Automatic annotation (TrEMBL):
Entry binding sites for ATP: G15, C16, G17, K18, T19, T20, R120
GO molecular function annotation: ATP binding; magnesium ion binding; shikimate kinase activity
Gene: aroK
Subunit architecture: Monomer.
Compartmental location: Cytoplasm
Keywords: Amino-acid biosynthesis, Aromatic amino acid biosynthesis, ATP-binding, Cytoplasm, Kinase, Magnesium, Metal-binding, Nucleotide-binding, Transferase
Protein name: Shikimate kinase
GO terms of biological process kind: amino acid biosynthetic process; aromatic amino acid family biosynthetic process; chorismate biosynthetic process
Organism of this sequence: Paramaledivibacter caminithermalis (strain DSM 15212 / CIP 107654 / DViRD3)
Cofactor binding summary note: Binds 1 Mg(2+) ion per subunit.
Amino acid sequence: MGKKGVNIVLIGMPGCGKTTIGKLVAKRLDMKFCDIDHYIEEKEGRSIPDIFKNYGEIYFRKLESKAVEKISKYADFVISTGGGVIKFHNNMEFLKKSGIIIFINRSVDDIISDIETDGRPLLKDGKERLYKLYKERIDLYKKYSDYEVVNDGSIEDIVNNIIQIAKSKSNPKE
């Protein structure tokens, strides 16, 4: 991999493949893996849908920001973020300092055909909500990413693309 200690940070819509792809990239590069949503669930002792239901999105975003600040201090990690991590500039500043940010861009239609929305609080209203989120977030994903990888092929192709990026660059915007 490029510079020792550089993280690979995956951003993108819910259901774009961040966790699945991130685990595979981490395994192939012999790096550690951290899913920020799972980290929050472990620390809080409850699921993300439960946090949203009982405490609301603002509370969750505060937890997410604390988790991002802590996790961004790790080294040699592949980090899978929540889809809304880009909503707060501070989150992205921490992540940007920690490594390469890769936007996994996947069409809303492909996401809808693949994911179960029950466990995803912001998608409980179905595909209309997903299209709205995509429209709200696409410019932020592009703004904060160092690279964009389109998830429209095989998982293996996407993993290989990310590995190629990681091996060729440390942090391109340094």
